[in-house]
């Protein structure tokens, strides 16, 4: 099935509900973000994913990350913007293909702040093929389903935002009706963990929650031969300072993984990618100058160079993809951006599975 066919299937799942005046993005109503009209056009449209059909598919993880970092948003004939990758395009996988890719890993782990929470939610949209409610946690009953559908799934309003990351810890997706009937004896697990507030003014503290979850011996020492896929993300909680992220996040994480592995009878391969800051609305630059586009670019480049040199780790740099994209509050994005991010993640998982094993923390 072609990418355009798979995208059309995703578009149809929400068009009847989200593109007919029912798209409501509740404002967060606090001091942190911007307020917009809550009723707005659905962020997904026919030209959302329209990379030239003549453009080749990315065949390696390096090609994929380069195409993302050097891509740009362009204006469409609908007076909206869409992201156009550089040199090669990703594949738009069907839900069935995403399930097959996920089963190549024992654990799919996403660690980060609210940007990563939204990316994890977008993964659920792709796994459920439900753009109306698929990003919401598997809770029943939930008032979220009455007020936070479509793009509202990514609103940071209190009644749409869930603070307990455990609601999207999925030990066996099949128990939620996801990826069933595939003849797999062992499930894959989906983990998302949010950080605490690591840095306040000039003081930083070690994120023990991250170390406890990410270096859990039951995961790292599992006899399951499948690799573990990990996405690490941070920035805003560290004052958008690269030195803080390196000192208080990446280096302690490396040390903790290595220490845990000294106790393992089995050492499962870790495939890890880094992703940092996104682009915020210019209207927020005066209030949060450390998160401006210029500073975010410097931050991403600095940390990307560090992880490449120290760990041979790739970076999924979503900054170009988020420039001039539709936002919910000036900092967080809607379905269009988050689903594209999630699909890039699954493309990386796909390409990783064919690459020679490379463990970044050996």
Task: Explain what the structure shows.
With 362 residues, the protein is an alpha/beta fold. The chain contains 11 helices and 9 strands. The strands form 3 sheets. A 5-stranded parallel β-sheet has the order 4-3-7-8-9, with helices on both faces. Strand 7 (228-233), helix 8 (242-261) and strand 8 (270-275) form a beta-alpha-beta unit. The longest helix has 20 residues, at 242-261. The model has no long low-confidence stretch (mean pLDDT 83). The chain has helices at 3-18, 61-69, 95-102, 114-128, 144-147, 208-214, 217-220, 242-261, 293-311, 319-322, 335-352; strands spanning 72-75, 81-84, 107-111, 189-193, 199-200, 203-204, 228-233, 270-275, 314-315. The chain has one domain: Rossmann fold, CATH 3.40.50.1110. 34% of the residues lie in helices and 10% in strands.
Give the C-alpha Rg.
19 Å
Query: How many domains make up the coordinates?
Result: 1
User: Number of helical segments?
Assistant: 11
CATH class: Alpha Beta
Reading the helices and strands in chain order gives: HHEEHEHHEEEHHEHEHEHH
* End-to-end distance: 38 Å
The structure class reads alpha/beta
Average residue pLDDT: 83
**Approximate strand percentage:** 5-15%
Low-confidence stretches: none
Helix content: 25-40%
